[in-house]
Specification:
The chain is mainly β and 127 residues long. It is 12% helix and 33% strand. The longest helix has 8 residues, at 88-95. The protein has one domain (8-125). The strands form 4 sheets. The protein has a 4-stranded mixed beta sheet, with no helix packed on it. A hairpin with a 2-residue loop joins strand 6 (50-54) and strand 7 (57-61). It is globular. The two termini are 19 Å apart.
């Protein structure tokens, strides 16, 4: 396996568990194939509150999964998976959309480029 470069947080193939990640300038989170970063479903893992936007309104709120306010030269690269572990119990019920999630049988996946990326609460594979 190649040695990670300076400023690179390298994730080899394995499962990793975390709460919010606050990136600093000059950092690249690099995920090898089959590296999976699973974010906590506990809201306390996203405190203290950070300056962010929610539905277009600037406010102090829970941290996003990955936060880098005011930072420069950051990246998330590789073929690994970021798994927000969203489901009707841990995401939509907080938004008052539990019935909608059950009706669809999923948590409103918003497919992006090549149909593999999802909203921040779901999981995303980066290429």
């Amino acid at each position: 396996m190649p040695k990670p470069a300076a400023g690179v947080s390298w994730f080899p193939p394995a499962n990793f568990f975390t709460g919010a990640i606050h990136l600093k300038s000059g950092v690249n989170l690099h995920f090898e194939t089959n590296a999976v970063l699973k974010f906590s479903t506990d809201p306390k893992a996203y405190l203290p509150a950070v300056f962010t936007r929610f539905e277009g309104m600037e406010c102090w709120n829970y941290s996003p999964l990955i936060y880098a306010y005011g930072q420069e030269n950051i990246a998330v690269t590789g073929d690994g998976t970021l798994d927000g572990q969203a489901d009707a119990m841990h995401w939509w019920s907080r938004k008052g959309r539990e019935a909608a999630a059950r009706k669809r049988g999923r948590c409103g996946r918003a497919a992006g480029q090549n149909g593999r990326r999802q909203h921040a609460g779901g999981s995303a594979t980066f290429r």
